[in-house]
Design brief:
The complex is a heterodimer of chains A (321) and B (133). Chain A is α/β, with parallel strands linked by helices and 321 residues long. Chain A has one domain: Thiolase/Chalcone synthase (Peroxisomal Thiolase, Chain A, domain 1, 3-Layer(aba) Sandwich), CATH 3.40.47. Helices cover 34% and strands 18% of the residues of chain A. In chain A, the strands form three sheets. A six-stranded mixed sheet of chain A has the order 5-4-6-7-1-8, with helices on both faces. In chain A, helix 3 links the parallel strand 4 and strand 5. The longest helix of chain A has 20 residues. The radius of gyration of chain A is 19 Å and the shape is globular. The N and C termini of chain A lie far apart (59 Å). In chain B, the strands form two sheets. A five-stranded antiparallel sheet of chain B has the order 6-5-4-7-8. Chain B is mostly beta strands. Chain B is 9% helix and 42% strand. Chain B has a domain of 93 residues: Beta Barrel (OB fold (Dihydrolipoamide Acetyltransferase, E2P)). Chain B has two helices and eight strands; from the N terminus they run H-H-E-E-E-E-E-E-E-E. Classes of the chains: A alpha/beta (321), B mainly beta (133). At the A-B interface, helix 2 and helix 3 of A face helix 2, strand 7 and strand 8 of B. The structure holds zinc ion. Zinc ion binds next to loops of chain B. The site of zinc ion has 8 residues of chain B, from loops.
Chain lengths: 321, 133
Amino acid sequence: MSNIMKPNRKVGIAGYGAYVPRFRIRAEEIARVWGGADEGFPIEEKAVPGLDEDTVTMSIEAARNALARAEIDAQELRAVWVGSESHPYAVKPSSTMVAEAIGASGSVLAGDWEFACKAGTEALQASIALVGSGMAEYAMAIGMDTAQGRPGDALEYTAGAGGAAFIVAPKENSVADLEASYSYVTDTPDFFRRQHMHYPEHGNRFTGEPAYFAHTLNGARGLLDGMGLKPSDFTFAIFHQPNVKFPSTAAKQLGFTKEQIAVGLLSDKIGNTYSGAAMIGMTAVLDIARARAPKTMWYVARREVIDYALYARYRGKLIMN
Amino acid sequence: MDLARNWRLKDQRYRLEGTICNKCGAKFFPPRGVCTECKSRDLRAHEFDGHGAVYSFTTLTQAPMGFEAAVPYIVGMIKLDEGPMVEAQITDVNPSAVKIGQRVEMVTRKLREYGEAGLIVYAYKFRPIANGN
Ligand SMILES: [Zn+2]
């Protein structure tokens, strides 16, 4: 029995939008402050949000870019869902603020999703179901994060900021088909943050094999087997990307080439954008065919390098009172 | 922390929603209930497209209460292409790079926080136009 998911009504992507804030901190600057560069850096540099940015403002810009590409009225959306592990409020949905700002408020589903790096694609699969069932003509799924890492922690090198928004629509109104999806989850305690804690905990080496690789490989194999496809059938493949090494290794083990994953692998330049990571990799791939709103690589190329002092200020690591 | 006031202002703050006169077409931001051009009271909501140019600007290093964390920040007068003049922060740019006449577009950003436990207020700001196509 195949466990891949296909909606009754064929669906696709009507519009998509990316967002990456403009500040960057380079890995060697973090190492200058904390040391620990002996084993090399997991990425070259990562994106840092400005003082007036958070998951809500970044989602709003990605959502507006998606609407500009889809050329639909925001009132046609029946869902605005934001997946993130950095929602600005513990209680109060990011999704309602995003929906209000883009003009989608009123007759619309809105709610936040939270699942480490899976929240955005989980919202995307739910959007496929909503449109695929005929309950809605248009649904928006956003994956966006302003990830935080404890100063000096290994996570600090990669915890980046950015993400993407997708508008799911019936196939006939789409620019790209969403043929099938697959989900693979288990309860694996490799990454968590308790209520009221500022920084997340993670499982160091445990994060590799039983967490990233087990889930990524099982997810990819489940989809390939279910669809009866092999890696050589694809032009591009996008992996979740907490760094450069993990997705490169997983791709190789599955039989994908470097060329197939190069376009959708942005973590070296913007860091791990958690819920946004695979989704902004996808917008970079879609950009090869489409324009009408700022392209993903424009945001990636727009960069102002900051030092650790400014980084500490922008990320709220200074105690003001 | 003015919950009711912040809630009332959300449409204009989040998406630059003003009003347009159904009689003569004059556009207003912030929204007005009476047209200053033809005195009509027949107006409807109008969402501005957010494009405009910097008319004037200054950099603030001494901020009013609630905005201290953002200094230095830029406050500008933005002449919208659709008519009205809007006072707003200019973001995503260093003060030395802002110029009178510079083309800008509206973005929705964090304006202020009412402390650690209070409301986060989001509002329009302007930034140099993004030509990312
Ligand atoms: Zn009038």
